[in-house]
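pipeline stage [seq->struct] | target=Type II secretion system F family protein | organism=Ideonella aquatica | residues=280
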Amino acid sequence: MNAEMLVIALLVFASVLLLLRAARGAYIDWRASFTEHARVTLADMFLFIDPRRLFRLNLLMFMLLPLLVWLLSGAPVLALLAGLLGAGLPRLAWVVMRHRRASRLVQQLPDGLTMMAGALRAGASLQNALDLLVRESPAPLSQEFSLLLREQRLGLALEDSLRGMGQRLKMEEIDLFVSALTIAKEVGGNLSEILERLSSALRAKAVMEGKIRALTSQGKLQGIIVGLLPIFLAAILYVMDPPAMMPLFTTLYGWGAMAAIAVLLVLGAFFIRKIVSIDV
């Protein structure tokens, strides 16, 4: 009997040790992936924050948010979902920040191109036109072109600098600007006129996209309301009759129903987004 207990204890100890080693390896991989992604993403947005501090904040959120949800609701499934939300919240925040920055850049680009075209028409060189754009434009347009100008002053070829800007930003408007400058440098032509026409085309494109957003805003709002309605109703029913709603959070059938609802909501949001998304 003692020998069997010893063997069981050794097996339990070995299992716990293996689990701890696996958890440590997963933690190290997660930390490395998080910090590298944070460093690259924040550097692209010209935000110079220590990624290790962000990782510690994310780890604290990952630990405290599930605990708080579990203490308030007593539902392990909700606590697990809260943990996943806490782990993925920084990446979601980066996506939102990148999207807003890209929107501001698109809004500022036509004015910047008009400014460059005016400087070139007045007899300034391309370097001087870029320098004027950097000095007179707000961020983020000035940040991106300041990096382009610094690369030029360090001796990097214009084509390489433009290619790096296009790969970093991955925006159709920037790709058009890069193509215009590259072609004008290779085959010649009136660069100021090219930039002026590109600026007018980008303004017309922005106006058309604004009209499309106005026409599709109702569909997007309907999708948001339909997506949030089940969550709102579940919260109301939980407040009105908690015992009747508890099986939804504490039983296997309830977890299955919640999983099915989540999948259907995601599919509905995906199809609504596809319907109201129109490329210009």
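stage status: PASS
auto-comment: DSSP finds ten helices and no strands in the chain. The mean pLDDT is 84.
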